[in-house]
Design goal:
CATH topology: DHBP synthase
Keywords: ATP-binding, Cytoplasm, Nucleotide-binding, Nucleotidyltransferase, Transferase, tRNA processing
Family: Belongs to the SUA5 family.
CATH architecture: Alpha-Beta Complex
Structural class: alpha/beta
Number of helices: 6
GO biological process, one term: regulation of translational fidelity
Enzyme class: transferase
CATH superfamily: DHBP synthase
InterPro entries: DHBP_synth_RibB-like_a/b_dom, Sua5-like_dom, TC-AMP_synthase_SUA5
Order of helices and strands: EHEEHEHEEHEHEEEH
CATH class: Alpha Beta
Radius of gyration: 16 Å
Strand order of the largest sheet: 1-8-2-3-7-4-6-5-9-10
Oligomer: single chain
Length: 216
């Protein structure tokens, strides 16, 4: 059975965060609010938990799971290096709706799917998500929906799709417009925008000092 915690009240929020942290540490799954859409999350370093996350969504390892972090400094331990362009984007848009694809540190013992040696990182701008990430460390988090269905913008939509495959649901209220994060690939030298979302091409171009085009 799954449990929903109302994180809009202090007492229930504290209980929910504790329950979610315990579940994640034990290899289970939780649903959490973010600043884009609701996410389904697991311990990024627990391969069995990540496989359970993919199974709950109904998708395979060909679509690797992104990783959410609770601080800028966490990134340094997860990637081979942080190029200057990445640091500029992190300073401008984190926490927020920007995901960065970087070469992962080769020493990391995790299995996020067929990543080809890269990792998709983001720091969300949501207090509940940040509190959980700072408690348990990096989490593998994907949108809280079954593959092919619309992303969940509230906890009811997430629970309707994922049901008891998730042990803990953290209800942070509606996420607003369900806009996905913008994804920038920095693994090939020149930045490539893989998906335009919450952060516009114009905003990215201004920070980087180059003209960017989606999918280029």
């Amino acid at each position: 059975m799954s449990t929903v915690y109302d994180c809009t009240t202090p007492e229930s929020r504290e209980q929910g965060l504790a329950a979610a942290a315990n579940i994640v540490r034990a290899g289970g799954l939780c649903v959490l609010p973010t600043d884009t859409v609701y996410g389904i999350g697991a311990d990024a370093f627990d391969a069995n938990a990540v496989r359970a996350l993919l199974a709950a969504k109904g998708r395979g390892p060909d679509m690797p799971v992104p990783v959410l972090v609770g601080s800028w400094s966490t990134v340094d331990g997860l990637v081979m290096s942080v190029p200057q362009q990445a640091r500029a984007l992190i300073e401008a848009f984190w926490p927020g709706g920007l995901s960065l694809v970087l070469p992962q540190a080769p020493s990391l013992n995790w299995d996020l799917g067929n990543t080809r040696g890269t990792v998709n990182l983001r720091m969300p701008l949501h207090p509940v998500a940040l509190d959980l990430l700072r408690e348990v460390g990096p989490m593998a988090v994907s949108s809280a929906n079954r593959t092919g269905q619309p992303p969940a913008s509230n906890v009811t939509e997430a629970r309707d799709q994922l049901g008891d495959s998730v042990q803990v649901y953290l209800d942070g209220g509606p996420s607003g417009e369900p806009v996905a994060s913008t994804i920038v690939d920095l693994t090939q030298g020149a930045p490539r925008v893989l998906r335009e979302g919450a952060v516009s091409l114009a905003e990215l171009s201004e920070v980087l000092g180059v003209d960017l085009e989606s999918g280029r």
